[in-house]
Amino acid sequence: MSNNNGLIILGNTGSGKSFIGNLILGQDFFQHECSASSVTHVTEFQDFREGSKHFSIFNIPGLIEDNQAAVDQNKVEIHKAFEMRPISIVAFVFNGGAGGRIKEEDIVAFEAINKAYSFESKSLLLIVNDLPSNRPPQYEGETTVKLQNLLNLPDVKVCFLDRIDTNNQQNRQVLRRKLLKAVLDRISKVHRKQREIQLRLDQLKEMKAEWKRKQSQLESSITNLQDQVSRAQNRYDDLQRQFNNLQETRREPLTTYSGPNNYVVPVPIYYPPPASAWGNTPILPMNHPGATAQADRIWSRLQNGN
């Protein structure tokens, strides 16, 4: 497949980069497993098409390792991806498995790469992966505001992915749709290395301590940011409700109509949306041939704030 665009998935070892790449692809192309050490050691990519959009999905080794030689090699692998597909969307994965808390080493890694490539919000997606389902009700709002303030990216998009049973295909499909919509909402742009990635393990402990201090300061002053938190949480809740409604309509069966000569013709069930959502526009059930296109249009409008 010929294309010049990439989706470059970054993050530390164990954050779920390979899983996310496979989720978008709809197949297990990248190796991923439960391991105490890195599974991905070299940059790998697979071409992918979704409608009129096509790009190469890159799976790259995590930046931080337990020895400096591995860290330095990972810097080379990261640069290799940007050299191969300079016009890209960048997704950085934060591991939310520790009760949803953002890990300091993930912030350190993001900052080191960001200083080298100067990411812009419109081409960047932050993913908080492997989240427990029983998280606090304002978690998404608070975490969005926290990341926007810590990273000095006030308009950056954050996608929250629940921990799922990866053997459950229905759960995988729902998570895939959510992730894919968030990715396709971003805009590819040219990324050029402006400086080398600066990260030394002998400084890691100090850098993590500094980011832990900054996180604590922000958390202690979060009450002063409640307006931001509420807006961010309301936005997330609205999007999630609309997404859930679309999933429900996709599961509805078709009724049938017995026409002349006893032919059975499938007739879709039409349900009017809530008054606050899309006026008199009917939402199509999953089996209707126009359902997928309609869902894509609605989701794009939601993501763009329309």
Care to give the gist of this entry?
The chain contains 8 helices and 9 strands.
Measured distance between first and last alpha carbons: 34 Å
Uncertain runs are 33-39, 252-280
Tell me, what's the shape?
Answer: globular
| Mean pLDDT across residues | 82
Rounded to the nearest angstrom, the radius of gyration is: 21 Å
Number of helices: 8
Q: SS-based structural class?
A: alpha/beta
Amount of helix: 40-55%
- Total DSSP E strands: 9
Provide structural commentary.
The chain is α/β, with parallel strands linked by helices and 306 residues long. The protein has helices at residues 17-25, 68-84, 104-117, 139-150, 169-184, 204-220, 226-250, 291-303, and strands spanning 5-11, 44-50, 53-59, 87-95, 124-131, 157-162, 189-190, 255-258, 264-267. The strands form two sheets. Strands 1, 2, 3, 4, 5, 6 and 7 form a seven-stranded mixed sheet that branches. A two-stranded antiparallel sheet has the order 8-9. 33% of the residues are buried. Residues 33-39 and 252-280 have low confidence and may be disordered.
